[in-house]
Amino acid sequence: MLKKGISAIFLLVAIVLVSPGARAGVPDWLHAAAQQPAKHYADDVNAVVLLDDQETTIRDTGEIVTLRRIAYRILRPEGKTVAGFGLGFDAETKINYLRGWSITVKGQEYEAKDKDAFERSATTYEVYSDVKERILIVPGADVGTVVGFEYEHKGRPYIFQDQWSFQREYPIEHTRYELRLPPGWEYRADWIHHSANEPVERNGAYTWELSDIPRIETEYHRQTEDALAGSMVVTFFSEKIKNQTYKSWKDFGFWYNQLAAGTREPTAALQQKVVELAPASMSPLERIKTLARFAQRDIRYAEIQIGIGGYRPHSAGDTFSHRYGDCKDKATMLGAMLSQIGVKSYSVLVRTDRGVYTENTPPSSQFNHMIIAIQLPEASSSQPMPGVYEHPKLGRLLIFDPTNDLVPFGQMPFYEQDNYGLLITEQGGEMIHLPISKPESNRVTRTAKLTLLPDGTLKGDVEEVRTGTEAYKARSRYSHQTESDRKKALEQSLGGSMTALHLDSMDAQNVDNIEGDLVLHYQFTAEHYAKNAGPLLLVRPRVTGEKMGALDSTKPRRYAYQFDSPALETDSFEISLPEGYKVDELPDPAKTSLSFGEYNSKITNAGNVLKYTREYKITSPLIPAERIGELNRFFREINMDEKSIAVLKRAN
Amino acid sequence: MRKLRHLVWFACLASASVSLAQKEDWLPVTQQDQQVKEVPGVPGAKAIQLYYAHYIDDNNHSQFFYNRIKILTEAGKDVRGYADVEIPVLPFFSVNNLKARTIHPDGTIVEFTGKPFEKTIIKGKGFKFLAKTFSMPEVTVGSIVEYKYRIEPPEGSIYDGEWTIQHELFTVKENFTFRGYEGGLQGTRGGTQVSYAGSNLTKRPTQKGNQIELEMENVPAFESEATMPPEENYKPHVRFFYGGGELASPERFWQDMGTARNDLVERFIGNRGPVRDAATAAIGGETDPERKLRKLYARAQQIRNLSYERERDEQEQKKEQLKPNQNTGDVLDRGFGSANDITLLFVAMARAAGFDTAVVLVSSRQEQFFEKNFLSARQLSYMVADVQVGGKDLYLDPGTRFCPFGLVRWMRTSTAALKLDKKGGTFIQLPPAANDKAVISRTVKAVLSEDGSITGDGTVQYQGGEALEHRLDAIKTDDAGRKKQLEDELKSWLPNGIIVKITDAQGWESTDDPLVAHFTLSVTNYGSVAGKRLLLPSALFQAKQKDAFKIAQRKYPVYFPYAFAEIDRISVKLPAGYSMENLPQPQSVALPYALYRSAAQFTGSELVTERVLRVNGILFYPNQYSEVKDFFNKVQAGDEQQAVLRVGGNVNAQKGN
């Protein structure tokens, strides 16, 4: 279910290949849009949507027909990409037509028709997916040009729901959604990130209209666009589609249960494997852990998505026999294995980008990942596990992601923490708030014993121990690197804050053993590290481990700032001073405590050793926009401390 | 992949390639294969290719591929690993006889019995570019996955071929065969010939009659390095070409190509009255030869340069009446043309004005360095003018928009070129541009506060090649985009957390004048407070090239696109009550091809630092790496020197340097 977009390179190729269309027949609605007086936008707005008009018609057969017209005005050269329009479809969706036009500033008109369109797979992540994209590129794309597209497609969806996404990367001047239902059909409209508006009902059609919708801007470390953008989810109800729609999360769970019915049935081979891997002689928790590890590590991730296969997992037996599957296949197979040892487990649907689902999100199918909740035996309650969710009825549920093979049993990937997931049980679906780990679970502990030479050269040993999210992020890099690549990456990273660095040795332990702490040892020599200034030697006690985050302070922040997860980093560096030098002046200690984190550091002098200790703690990963000033101050304090310099003086 | 070269002239020959077919069986899995645990000398590698074969048989119109890969780590079998296979199939080509299997560490074999999927890469009017995809069954760490298939081109076509010798995996054994087409091909002169050229090979292919073979062993994975020249220069490969008599030798090929191209070029240039009139009008009363040329150059650059505009389709070309030019008269008359059209118009006008001017076909070192044995005319597709002035060659590049008179854009300098004449021409080397042809000058006047923050304003001036590159980048954006590009660049040179605002930028549309931008800056924590001292870095701007020298060793050269110079003058007014305890020491580091100087002065209230960095080379080979690394380390160390200020004391204590 995870998807990744195809790069824009394709579009460039396609622009070159685009074929001529017939004579332009620009429709009136586009002429009207082009004649609207131009409004003023910020100078980094690339294009504006003048009109986005969608008519959705439900037929009594359950077929949904969508007619959409969209018009853009290109405001900047970077906005020329709007002249290429991509429309997704699959085996269940038919594009009746797709047309495009443009009107240039000089009044020239162009047209591109269906026959000029290209098709491609909509994503590249899967081994195969039947979801494709038809792309139409209209000529004449220059600044000031108005481009428009119109299409009609029809299909019979697996879930009877539609989404009016009225907020995106470009401002929208006017947008309209019209819904036509056959007699006996009903709808429910739920609004996301926007206050609810009532429709106008006329001639059996319901119409919602909005104007002047601001764009979603790009900011460092903001949440994903879907977590911020306004939309309206429309769910349809009729006796004819009883099993393909839902009024609540509970109903959604029933729908999924029905869809996935039978997929957890074990085969003889799977049962045999469970007996072999997790004999009854093992403790219950060990048995669970062993099977979880098997699903995580021995079932390779490979996605093949055809039709309903985007929602329904393959059978546990097939996944087991092929030894590959996607997230829902892995979760389903693990569920089947666990049931063989009498352990109950439940599928959990999530979005891998935190914030898209909250406790207020109406029932909607925007999930892109499946994990599993494992009901832990009573005897395991003494085991502390950051990934445990305490369910009022089901007891201790371990939230486990068998797709991520770098996160140990008992923990969760950071992107699932503090997120919301749909727990699917026999009683239907239930939206639950997934647990978040404590800073102490995600540690970087850095210790260094270093020696400073009179010429400014610094040399010595460093040990870095990583746990939790910090270990996961490092393993994600290391697992794709050879030892030589790791060394080069470390040289590059240390070299950013040390001149003329030479890495004398490097050793990473427990890269594959995900149960253990990830430990990195290295030795280095950095010439010119301390700067001679007459009788003084100037040394920066914070040798490595920059922590200052990126934040654009030149314009007001609109959205919350997101850290990956809570974290705790502690540095403890000892620098032996060169003979004949003594500390003349030390920077002041740093101490900052804010609602979301703390930072403090201290430099002391003991004999001929300079000691630098600091602690950096993030307790809450999401900083609301109104607290960005605090975050800015936090980063400034860190920056000042990281640059601070101790002054050593040569004894006479 | 192969490029269409010729259509088959005669019916396909029926010479079945029995011997090649025999080589296409599954190979036995040896104990040695099963015992491999890691790539020799590369611990941590995800997988190893035990065997790779590529047989091209143009008599049977097919290519055969065989990959045997052993998975060594978990990452080797996961997404983007080696257990999912994707075989691109060009439009009109087909994939046949695909077979795949997984061999477990215990020797059991699991055949792939499914049907590959057809993934649409791109499908348009009348063509489909697909990929065959499938996932190997039951893959674990230690499994060997292998697959083999034939790719067949559209019927009746022969394509130029290529062997890829070096892959992303270490390859234990490689086997290549090429069997050339033995019939006749359309469009070839002097009988059909097939030729091949190898690059970066450690072993020569063997040729027996029409069959060329190569066996390689222990070919390391190709690992690119940051700031290296284009990778293609270092990847070994063998290319095959079909053609006529021109393939007899590289010399013959380039001579024939040059003769044909010269003929086309001369016809395009011609000797036309309107062009002569335009030259006369442009020159006016000027008599100095160089100034005359400058006027002609400026006139040529007034032509709308379509090479710097977006692609237009046929509808647009028709509406905008953008027709291909047939000669220099068209270029002048219509007022638009490609980069080469504009250069040829300049040549025509220069000749009309009496200058001995030749057309030079030049290669570009942006994507790959020129390779003489690679017989492809596309290597020499760009044109510059060679004008004789005072007995010297003056190379001019009017086809590059905004290119100043006397400068050739960087990718066409220090590279091979063919100076055309009736006999085909002569190979020459276009000269490099020295560091004074690409200069960035920065001046800043700032005020330091007691807490270490600074605010100020400054000017950055781009000259020559630097101005040209910024102007060309600016074509793709607008004023806001240009401003942002400049701000981003300034931030990349300055300490973290700095706020830079461009207040004004002039000279975007000029050619000879510098591009000048004014900015304001402010940064907290620029200086560090330590007790009664305030420590201030001596250089505000950091050398942008320093990141190229972080790693200990390199396999490939460090490559800068062009020689360059940075000239800075930074003046910082100190807070009242501070004295200078220690001024940064003057720095001077010199190599035959690089120079760094930095000197600080204290006027009593201001710290003024002047800094110069000049690099007069573009390619630094691995045996020079330690020397160049040492140079840039010294530059960085010099830039990081600190001025030590102290509360109180005699302000004049450290005047001078």
Can you describe what's shown?
The complex is a heterodimer of chains A (652) and B (657). With 652 residues, chain A is α+β, with helices and mostly antiparallel strands. Chain A folds into 3 domains: 9-244, Immunoglobulin-like (Sandwich); 255-433, Roll (C8orf32 fold), CATH 3.10.620.30; 439-650, Jelly Rolls, CATH 2.60.120. In chain A, strand 25 (443-452) and strand 26 form a beta hairpin. Chain A is globular. The relative contact order of chain A is 0.08. Mean pLDDT of chain A is 92; it is low at 1-23. Chain B is α+β, with helices and mostly antiparallel strands and 657 residues long. Chain B has 3 domains: 3-243, Immunoglobulin-like; 252-431, C8orf32 fold (Roll), CATH 3.10.620.30; 436-647, Jelly Rolls. Helix content of chain B is 19%, strand content 37%. Chain B is built from 12 helices and 37 strands. In chain B, the strands form 9 sheets. An 8-stranded mixed sheet of chain B has the order 6-5-9-3-2-12-15-14. An 8-stranded mixed sheet of chain B has the order 26-27-25-24-31-35-34-33. Chain B has a 5-stranded antiparallel sheet with strand order 21-20-19-22-23, with helices on one face. In chain B, a hairpin with a 5-residue loop joins strand 5 and strand 6 (109-111). In chain B, helix 5 (273-283) packs across helix 8, helix 5 (273-283) crosses helix 9 and helix 8 packs across helix 9 (339-352). The longest helix of chain B has 20 residues, at 250-269.
